[in-house]
Design a protein that fits this description.
This is RNA polymerase sigma-70 factor (ECF subfamily). Keywords: DNA-binding, Sigma factor, Transcription, Transcription regulation. It comes from Sphingobium fontiphilum. The chain has 178 residues and is mainly alpha-helical.
Length: 178
């Protein structure tokens, strides 16, 4: 299940207001988002889990610094990025860690969030199976096998759904440009 920006913001607001249940739901919902974020950037499986835990702790400890007028995911991924840089420094990795999504998160909170919402709206125009396959493989960073497992369908079905979905989105986008 994919959690929306608005739901994350609602849980964060509830947690800030003292609702322990909302705060627990927020932290629980962040785990797959953070794993997907790190899976694309960190090769060490144990390192990924350590980073996820560090970010969850930071979200809990620093929750008072969250500005509710800004997108929650931008705040979250800024924390995740800084934790990742700290991790790379600890393990001695000196490769550049910047990529397009990191730059969007750190330099354009509203733009990045708006782009995520636009992508979400576009995916909502597709049949549910195609949208789920694209979200799993392209946005959540799952392999075809992992996506097939999660969606309880075959790997070839995932590949076909992604292909057809992307083709349909390309046609829609081209149609919108004209």
């Amino acid at each position: 299940m994919r959690v929306s920006e608005q739901q994350l913001r609602n849980w964060m607001a509830g947690g800030l207001a003292g609702d322990a249940s909302a705060h627990a739901r927020l932290l629980h919902a962040l785990v797959p988002l953070l794993r997907a974020f790190y899976r694309r950037r960190v090769q060490d499986g144990d390192g990924i889990e350590d980073l996820v835990q560090e970010v969850l702790i930071a979200v809990h400890v620093r929750r008072a610094t969250y500005d509710s007028d800004r997108p929650f995911t931008a705040w979250l991924f800024a924390i995740a990025r800084y934790k990742m840089i700290d991790h790379f420094r600890r393990v001695g990795r000196h490769d550049p860690v910047e990529d397009l999504s990191d730059i969007l998160v750190t330099e354009g909170f509203e733009d990045a969030s708006g782009a995520r919402l636009d992508v979400s709206r576009l995916l909502d125009t597709l049949p549910p199976k195609q949208a789920a396959a694209i979200r799993a493989t392209r946005l959540d960073g799952l392999s075809v096998a992992e996506a097939a497992d999660r969606e309880n369908i075959g790997e070839s079905d995932i590949k076909i759904s992604v292909h057809r979905g992307l083709k349909a989105l390309a046609k829609r986008i081209k149609g919108d440009v004209k």
